[in-house]
Amino acid sequence: MNLSLNELTKMATQEVNFDETFFSNIEECIKYNSIGTLNWAIHTLTIIRERIDVEQKENKLFRWIADINENESLVRVLPTNVVYIRNIKLGSLTPFVTEHNNVYVYNEKTGRIEEVFE
Length: 118
What we know:
single chain; four-stranded antiparallel β-sheet; 3 helices
């Protein structure tokens, strides 16, 4: 499977998990031995490294609770412990609310998510 340089760069900025074919395609592109292609490969690998660095830094506003699926996880806002659904691909946060518009709060003592009635 040969992907274009633009497709590989797009994957580097959007994918959550990289498979063997992604890195095989980058390795194949590097074999062309042109300065432009080598600069592109360095740029693409730098994008991946920066994404890894950002994910590894401790976030002082949100804490991970659990993964819902491949694209979404539950996080809590540290000052209030209100639970949100974080969409990794879209980079969005949505409040985790009940059908009655009550919010859920993470209880640190019990490790459970509890409904708050307002």
